[in-house]
Amino acid sequence: MAATTALTAQNTQGVFDIHNVPSAFVCKQIDACIDDIGVDVVKIGMLASTSTINAVATTLEKHSRPTCVLDPVMVATSGAQLLPNSAVTSLREQLLPLTTILTPNIPEAKLLLDNAGVEYPEPICSIPDLIRVAKSLQCLGPKHVLIKGGHLPVDRDLNVAQLDADKEFVIDVLFSSHDRNDKDDVVVFRTNFSPSKNTHGTGCSLASAIASNLALGRDVPHAVENACRYVERGIRTAPDLGRGSGPINHFPSYAASENPEEWGQSSLIRFDGNSFT
């Protein structure tokens, strides 16, 4: 079930216009879904205005704060900021405290921390830097933060790749804080880097896959791990549509070229504060 927050005129070459759905109507869509069939997990993507952000937050509160995966769509591929600062503030203040898992990429993470006036490593150029950014974001309210490292591919030694030829892996960092034992938990996910232009919708697909895995009863680290594998396969088997950044393959299990024995070629690495295990 879906509640549409905005309509876009876009193709693989860019977004040409955005039409915002009235906030009151967005709330009616959410109510209609939850009041009848119900939801196990909510996934939130593009929220194009302050009024819509506030309305969604109010509606989630009314429905007892369901498990929520928030993909904060705020920065375009070109680097342009899609939301005005007032909307970024509303998202940070109203939605982050309701969020189970926040899934920003590096530019979105930096924008949220800038908006909150929180310092972070600049430039972000290592896995420990990603961990510090994730920890700072988690302090803003979400239970878990997954920093997507697609903008920072690494080499086989897990150092940031300096040359295209050295790009071996993509690193995603999951940070969780457990108040009951005052211990932080960091999990690093490593998937193969694919030199592909067909990455349209990867963030949306990843957040949706995490939500789907949570709804199936998987815990957060394994939900994220399965989602990372799904997106990696989707990029690797993308159908190469359009003249620009094409979509990933959302049904990679049905790709004729896929070898099922290769589906598990990603790994979950725990970080104990000093080293990876």
In brief:
The protein is α/β, with parallel strands linked by helices and 277 residues long. The chain has helices at residues 23-36, 50-62, 85-95, 106-116, 127-138, 202-215, 220-236, and strands spanning 6-11, 14-20, 41-44, 67-70, 101-102, 144-147, 169-178, 183-192, 267-271. A seven-stranded mixed β-sheet has the order 3-4-5-6-7-8-9, sandwiched between helices. Strands 1-2 form a two-stranded antiparallel sheet.
Structure description:
By secondary structure, the protein is of the alpha/beta class. Helix content is 33%, strand content 19%. The chain has seven helices and nine strands. It has helices at 23-36, 50-62, 85-95, 106-116, 127-138, 202-215, 220-236; strands spanning 6-11, 14-20, 41-44, 67-70, 101-102, 144-147, 169-178, 183-192, 267-271. The strands form two sheets. It has a seven-stranded mixed sheet with strand order 3-4-5-6-7-8-9, with helices on both faces. Helix 2 links the parallel strand 3 (41-44) and strand 4. Helix 4 crosses helix 5 (127-138). The radius of gyration is 18 Å and the shape is globular. The N and C termini lie far apart (39 Å).
